[in-house]
């Protein structure tokens, strides 16, 4: 624990003295600016005491027996992930880059590159690896040219034991016993998660090609290609460094919140932090673990050992209860719902909790934390909920404090679906013909067909319970869910939410599906609030007649305007919500809404037109 206190004390001082007390200002802090600082800095920023403290606290739970002293002097090495000098050249006193100057960048291009160069000295671009530098230093080889995407591909090749590998890198990894847990496909995914490198891998967890393999001294390199590479490099780093820094700061902030400053200082504050009351455990530890788990580590919430180990690492000792009183169980509910139930130590005063419950919607990846709390009203129990960054009261209830009664209060009941004349409610125009001989999705479903010269559409509508509707207020959840479920011949086009003319909430998604080399279908799913339930609309807009005309014409237009070319079509296909996502099949430039007017009979134009029709009628 001595190392913990040493690192935490140094970080606390640094936040107070250098960051004005705000740890979030660490996000883009340039550690190279501390060259002359005897307390925090070093001429090599990766060897600076504050950097070692940060890296130890951030990755102490990843690498066995890591300590501040072992970084750069023992089996571990702190290193930068991305290094700009190969592409930009040496930074000459922030006035110009020795390599970039030969390509005559615009002032704005230079300033952007300068900003990114300084960001490479921030926490979002630092990692710790075993091998005392034998692994991390390999990226310096000319076969990688400091490009992390190329380097990570070779780490992947070694860990998945492929035939063609970098032999030097292979030997370095094999000689580092700390890397053994990362072998195999699943091991590599764990390595990416532990090192917080999700931006470097694709949907399948495999390393992506992110950068053009370009360097400033490359022979025959023209200005346009070079500056495009700089643009590409800056765009990725500006986003990836900050996202990764946020994850590291989240860990540091949690540690600072709980760990005492010194094992020898017995102040009131330190005593409070060393004692773990039932209240602190139920409303602080579990709550923060829940917030952390929602970022992709849901498994920890069902692991009692995780909570006990975490508290032990933070030097928190239970007061008034033992860990034997804490029980975790999981129940499978209907559909895609499960509930994680925490049996807490017997509550003795308000607002200690008897039970905690995390209700998980596996389909949409949502979860909510509830508590059943003791209150001073005899025979009454309070239900609390975690939302909007805090824990608030749902209500007081006269109930027997059983699991069953608790679940009745927090699990949305199966709703009575209203009996609705959907045909009359939708009131679709005459070109939408009702179909009676098609297989119905559910009882009460109505079906329609419509067509244009280039499109045939089949539409079905029925009512569903609110529980089964898409989340109206969280399109990010829908986008994430769709990304995870797409097959290789499907692509996300758009997800949008809003309110109809009658102020009903709605949300919809459009996904395209390649049926063969000449035909594409656009699949629309939409929910609209209605009488405590939801109207569900499912539509399939199918290409008909002469196909591919929209793609061909917009491709030619984009070529004339210089946006794409046969040799460079990188801007033709893209994901509309994640520009770094790479998939075999994606949305293309012609599918932007701005081109709908040029192709009114195209299935995608008809699909969006139908969405507007529904929002006007409901």
Task: Kindly name the structural category.
Answer: alpha+beta
Strand order of the largest sheet: 13-14-15-19-18-17-16
Distance between the termini: 62 Å
**Structural Rg:** 28 Å
The level of helicity is 25-40%
The tally of helices reads 16
Overall number of strands: 21
Low-confidence stretches: 260-273
Largest sheet: 7 strands, antiparallel
* Beta-strand proportion: 15-25%
Globally, the shape reads flat
Please write out the topology:
Layout: H1 2-18, H2 49-59, E1 76-80, H3 85-88, E2 91-92, E3 96-97, H4 107-119, E4 126-130, H5 148-159, H6 167-174, H7 184-195, H8 223-258, H9 268-274, E5 275-276, H10 278-293, H11 304-313, E6 317-318, E7 327-332, E8 337-343, E9 353-361, E10 366-374, E11 380-387, E12 390-398, H12 403-410, H13 422-426, E13 433-435, E14 446-452, E15 455-465, H14 475-485, E16 490-499, E17 505-516, E18 519-530, E19 533-543, H15 549-560, E20 573-574, E21 587-588, H16 603-617
Parallel strand pairs: 5-6
Antiparallel strand pairs: 1-4, 2-3, 7-8, 8-9, 9-10, 10-11, 11-12, 13-14, 14-15, 15-19, 16-17, 17-18, 18-19, 20-21
What features would you describe in this structure?
The chain has helices at residues 2-18, 49-59, 85-88, 107-119, 148-159, 167-174, 184-195, 223-258, 268-274, 278-293, 304-313, 403-410, 422-426, 475-485, 549-560, 603-617, and strands at residues 76-80, 91-92, 96-97, 126-130, 275-276, 317-318, 327-332, 337-343, 353-361, 366-374, 380-387, 390-398, 433-435, 446-452, 455-465, 490-499, 505-516, 519-530, 533-543, 573-574, 587-588. The chain is an alpha+beta fold. The strands form six sheets. The protein has a seven-stranded antiparallel beta sheet with strand order 13-14-15-19-18-17-16, sandwiched between helices. A hairpin with a 2-residue loop joins β17 and β18. α1 (2-18) crosses α2. The longest helix has 36 residues, at 223-258. The chain is flat, with a radius of gyration of 28 Å.
């Amino acid at each position: 624990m001595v190392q913990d206190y040493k690192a935490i004390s140094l970080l606390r001082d640094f936040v107070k003295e250098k960051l004005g007390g705000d740890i979030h200002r660490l996000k883009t802090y340039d550690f190279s600016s501390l060259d002359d600082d005897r307390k925090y800095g070093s001429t090599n920023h990766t060897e600076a005491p504050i950097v070692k403290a940060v890296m130890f606290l951030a990755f102490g739970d990843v690498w066995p027996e890591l300590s501040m002293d072992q970084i750069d002097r023992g089996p571990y090495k702190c290193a930068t992930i991305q290094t700009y000098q190969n592409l930009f050249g040496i930074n000459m006193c922030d006035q110009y880059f020795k390599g970039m100057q030969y390509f005559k960048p615009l002032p704005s291009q230079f300033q952007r590159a300068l900003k990114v160069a300084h960001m490479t000295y921030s926490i979002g671009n630092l990692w710790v690896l075993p091998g005392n530098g034998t692994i991390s230093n390999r990226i310096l080889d000319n076969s990688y040219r400091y490009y992390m995407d190329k380097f990570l591909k070779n780490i992947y090749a070694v860990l998945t034991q492929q035939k063609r590998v970098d032999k030097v890198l292979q030997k370095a990894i094999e000689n580092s016993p700390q890397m053994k847990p990362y072998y195999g496909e699943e091991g590599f995914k764990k390595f990416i998660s532990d090192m917080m490198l999700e931006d470097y891998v694709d949907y399948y967890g495999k390393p992506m090609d992110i950068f053009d393999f370009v360097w400033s001294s490359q022979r025959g390199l023209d200005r346009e290609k070079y500056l495009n590479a700089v643009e590409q490099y800056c765009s990725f780093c500006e986003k990836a460094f900050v996202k990764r820094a946020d994850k590291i700061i989240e860990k540091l902030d949690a540690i600072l919140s709980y760990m005492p400053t010194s094992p020898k200082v017995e102040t009131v504050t330190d005593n409070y932090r060393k004692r773990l009351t039932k209240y602190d455990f139920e409303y602080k530890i579990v709550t923060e673990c829940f917030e952390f788990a929602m970022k992709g580590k849901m498994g920890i919430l069902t692991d009692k050992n995780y909570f006990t180990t975490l508290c032990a690492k933070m030097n928190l000792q239970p007061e008034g209860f033992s860990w034997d009183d804490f029980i975790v169980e999981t129940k499978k509910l209907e559909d895609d719902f499960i509930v994680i139930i925490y049996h807490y130590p017997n509550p003795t005063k308000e607002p200690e909790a008897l039970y905690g419950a995390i209700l998980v919607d596996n389909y949409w990846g949502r979860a909510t934390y509830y508590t059943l709390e003791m209150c001073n009203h005899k025979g009454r129990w309070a239900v609390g909920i975690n939302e909007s960054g805090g824990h608030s009261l749902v209500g007081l209830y006269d109930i027997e404090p059983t699991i069953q009664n608790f679940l009745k209060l927090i699990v949305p009941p199966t709703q009575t679906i209203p009996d609705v004349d959907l045909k009359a409610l939708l009131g679709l125009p005459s070109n939408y013909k009702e179909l009676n001989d098609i297989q119905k999705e559910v009882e009460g479903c109505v079906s329609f067909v419509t067509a244009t010269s280039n499109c045939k559409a089949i539409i079905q509508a029925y009512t569903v319970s609110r529980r089964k509707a898409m989340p109206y207020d969280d399109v990010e959840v829908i986008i994430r869910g769709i990304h995870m479920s797409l097959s290789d011949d499907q692509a996300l086009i758009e997800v949008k939410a809003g309110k109809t003319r009658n102020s009903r909430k709605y949300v919809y998604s459009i996904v395209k599906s390649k049926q063969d080399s000449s035909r594409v279908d656009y699949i629309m799913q939409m929910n609209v609030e209605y009488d405590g339930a939801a109207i569900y609309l499912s539509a399939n807009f199918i290409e008909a007649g002469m196909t591919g005309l929209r793609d061909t014409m917009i491709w030619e237009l984009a070529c004339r305007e210089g946006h794409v070319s046969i040799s460079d079509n990188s801007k033709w296909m893209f994901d509309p919500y994640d520009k770094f996502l790479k998939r075999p099949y994606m949305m293309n430039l012609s599918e932007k809404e701005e081109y709908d007017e040029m192709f009114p009979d195209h299935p995608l134009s008809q699909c969006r037109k139908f969405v507007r029709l529904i929002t006007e009628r409901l």
